[in-house]
Amino acid sequence: MRHVKTGTPVVETSSAPAGRHLHPWPLRIMHWVNAAVMLIMITSGWGIYDDDVIIRGFHFSPFWRLGDWAAWSLNWHFAGMWFLVINGLAYLVYGFASGRFREKLLPIRPAEVLQTVIDTLHLKIAHEDITVYNAVQKLLYIIVILAGISQVITGVAIWKPLQFSGLVSLLGGFQTARVLHFAGMAVIVGFIIVHVALALLVPKTLWAMIAGGPRLKPRGRAKEGHPA
Amino acid sequence: MRSPFRPDFPPDPAILDDHKPLIRSLERRGLIRGGLSLGALVMLTGCDVRRPEAIESALLAISRLNDGVQALLFDPKKLAPTYPDSMILRPPKFNAYYDVMDVKPVNGTAWRLEVSGLVADKRAWTVSDLQALPQTSMVIKHICVEGWSYIGGWTGVALRLFLERVGADLRAKYVAFKTADNYPSSIDMASALHPQTLLALEYGGETLADPFGFPMRLRTAVKLGYKNPKWVTAIEVTNDYPGGYWESLGFPWFAGI
Predict the structure, then answer these.
(1) Pairing assessment for the beta strands B114-117 and B232-238 based on DSSP bridges
(2) Which of A10-24, A27-41, A148-162 is least confident?
(3) Residue B200 and residue B209 in contact, taking contact as beta carbons nearer than 8 Å
């Protein structure tokens, strides 16, 4: 962990046993549970999709499908959903109750988003301080959290279209709900590609999600750039 | 940085001594032989290493748990949305575990419906016996587990009415079906008693066509398509889990929507 500390300006140089980790242990557990469950839900979902495709001619090759045929893809999907929902709910409760969402994801200013996009296009990617998210990161994290929630809602709609027929008509019918469920998957997969690529480009972020990352100053003495 | 695999404290030497014979018995030749057998195992077509037995039984255990959750979610009073007659797809979509060309038509005059299990009256039924009972019509959506759906119009005898007529034990757990095309199926009693569960005789106001289950098929609005057996020849009321064709291959049994 020591090498992570060097060069991260917001981090205290003296050891502060009371300080919080950037990623406290409950968050790390939920992150990796979610990573595994998302992988199960996405690849088993591809197996289910392939039985009756939405986009004509577009299939997922057996290599990418979890379950050797539809029955087992379904069983994986209907088993994974409980872990996804329980872990996801725990994450949302934790994120709101601990103040992490407010601290890490807000505020997002459109001008900052634009500036970050321009900087990124000029290959200026600031990552010396991994404890603060830039505006694009904040936006992407919020989008993927909303996509996850949306997947559960559209998933419930196509799992129980009669028991939740009100929800289905709100979503525009069974087939529309099915397409929305597919689109939500595409958003999450898009996020994962960017997320994993950037984590590999800046390996200390990956290590921080395993070991906890740098210790933060107590919230009361938060400096500028840390809206309390 | 210290290796995360190195233990904090060296293990007790006594434990290491305990395992010395085992370590000595590890032979290089054995490892090679083992590796080759594992490689050969992958080539066995009947053996799917991608679906180990432990994972399979865990998934089936969760699937049975889900059957229970689905039964709890099932509201016997909730009706499926219905549609105007003009939206009925003609002809309906054919689906079975074989091709439509392989359908073997059933002779309606020779056809009998056997009734067995926990019922008072086990007399067999003819087509005209069923036609003589009060008929119910519904225009509902058919939803397949694969994802496709269509709107169909069905007319026939409410299964609840039929079960009452034969004096079935309505507290029994299951209603099971046997068919002319060897497609056993079964549903829970609560779904069997739902007003949108019919022993269907007609589609779109006309006698069922051969590929769609003539003379009689089950049509329920509260289940996925594969819980709607065609060419039904026998109904049994039972407390012993009857299973079904796709269920025996791994699909969920309850399959409520």
Answers:
(1) parallel
(2) A10-24
(3) no
Average pLDDT, integer, range A88-108: 93
Å from B116 to nearest chain A CA? Answer: 31
Confidence of residue A134 (pLDDT cuts 50, 70, 90): confident
In CATH, what number does B76-249 get? 3.90.420.10
For A67, the domain range is 20-218
pLDDT score for B83: 97
Which positions ≥6 away from A53 have C-beta within 8 Å? A59
B145 part of contact set with chain A, CB < 8 Å: yes
Helical spans, DSSP H, in B92-246: 127-132, 159-165, 189-192
Q: Number of structural domains, chain A? A: 1
A115 in reach of chain B (CB within 8 A):
no
Question: Residue B112: its pLDDT value, please?
Answer: 98
What pLDDT does A121 receive? Answer: 81
Cβ separation of A51 and B146 shorter than 8 Å? yes
Give domain status of residue A114, yes or no.
yes
Which is higher by pLDDT, A210 or B22? A210
Q: Is residue A7 situated within a structural domain?
A: no
Vertex B37 angle, CA B34 and B41, to 5°: 140
CA torsion angle A11 A13 A16 A17 (round to 10): 90
Interchain contact, B249 vs A71, CB within 8 Å: yes
B55 at A interface, C-beta within 8 A: no
Task: Choose the weakest-confidence range: A87-101, A122-136, B173-187.
Answer: A122-136
Kindly state whether residue A68 falls inside one of the protein's structural domains.
yes
In a domain, A73, yes or no: yes
Q: In chain B, what residues touch A70 (CB-CB under 8 Å)?
A: 145-146
Inter-chain touch A174–B141, beta carbons under 8 Å: yes
Chain A: give the shortest CA distance to residue B153, in Å: 17
A188 CB within 8 Å of a chain B CB: no
Q: Which of B141, B250, B257 sits opposite A71 (nearest CB)?
A: B250
Domain boundaries, chain B: 76-249
pTM: 0.82
Edge-to-edge, what's the strand order for the sheet holding B174-179?
B114-117, B232-238, B174-179, B185-188
Nearest CA of chain B to the CA of A131: how many Å? 22
Q: Residue A57 is part of a domain; what is its CATH number?
A: 1.20.950.20
